[in-house]
Amino acid sequence: MGRIDEKFQELKTAKKKAFITYLTFGFPYISFTKDIILALQNTPVDMIEIGVPFSDPLADGPILQEASKIAISKGADSDKLFSVLNSLKGKISTPLIIMTYYNPVYRFGVDKFLNNAKKADVSGIMVVDLPVEEASYFIRKSRRLNIDTIFFITPQTQNRRIKEIAEASRGFIYYISVAGITGPRSLSLNSIHKNIRYIKKFSKIPVCVGFGIHKRTQVKELFKISDGVIVGSALAKFIKSSYKDKDFFNKLERFIKRLYV
Fold first, then answer.
1. From CA 148, how far away is CA 3, in angstroms rounded?
2. Does the reported pTM lie above 0.70?
3. Which of 5, 35, 60, 227 does the annotation list as catalytic?
4. Which one is catalytic: 46, 49, 77, 148?
5. Active-site residue 60, yes or no?
6. Domain containing residue 30: CATH number
7. Which of 25, 161, 204, 245 is the most exposed place for a label (fewest CB within 10 A)?
8. Mean per-residue pLDDT, 76-93
9. CA 229-232-236 angle, 5° bins
10. CA–CA dist 46, 95 (Å, integer)
């Protein structure tokens, strides 16, 4: 059993749902990302997604696009990501998940990327633009390294593909709550609930909801119908507005607790 499975089992025993945060690596600068990861251990965050900055992040809204642009300008890349993650070994128990586009993986080398992830104690990887139909080698290699492969299902995913994606996923399935790009917005809870129920016909692994989540009320409602939520753009917006403050880490803890139910 991997660390993500262990975390969900722990949460199930405690009758809780997963609260997952997303950070763009290198935003606002590289060493600060490391500090934030360490600080999140002292909050209710159950898992941390760390995004590899990319120059053409098609699924990201303006907030995360800007975060990627800033991170790249500060020199953030896959090599530095793995260097930071290796420096965190033994200091963090929260499962870490890498979120990336395929281009950085391809340029780094698929085997090299996954081997480095394993060495850095990464629990899971999600590749935004890698269709499950083209991911057979990636899946096999990840399985051998005991790294969970997390795939995406959207409101537009055809029924025939949902089964295939569910069967290929490990750790959890990332359900994208709305069509389009990331960023704060209103959510159709009835539609989300209906789609999650359908997904669960094909897989017993958890389904977590991301995209558009920025309010405590949304987290509370989504906890009722899913296995967890992912908050990204709202956290990036908070970091951008507050990272220069002397009491940033106290504010970070309060920000997380305001969202968490």
1. 9
2. yes
3. 60
4. 49
5. yes
6. 3.20.20.70
7. 204
8. 96
9. 150
10. 7
Only one residue has tokens 């262990």, namely 6
Domain region containing 206: 3-259
Q: How confident is the model at residue 186 (pLDDT cuts 50, 70, 90)?
A: low
State both tokens at 189. 């809870």
* Bridge partner residues of 21 (DSSP): 48, 231
What pLDDT, in 10s, does the model give residues 101-144? 999 999 999 999 999 999 999 999 999 999 999 999 999 999 99
CB 105 within 8 A of CB 137: no
pLDDT at res. 187: 64
Clarify whether 245 is annotated catalytic.
no
pLDDT band at 179 (very low <50, low <70, confident <90, very high): low
**Counted domains in the chain:** 1
Question: In which residue are the tokens 């990327």 written?
Answer: 113
Nearest to 253 by CA among 242, 10, 75: 242
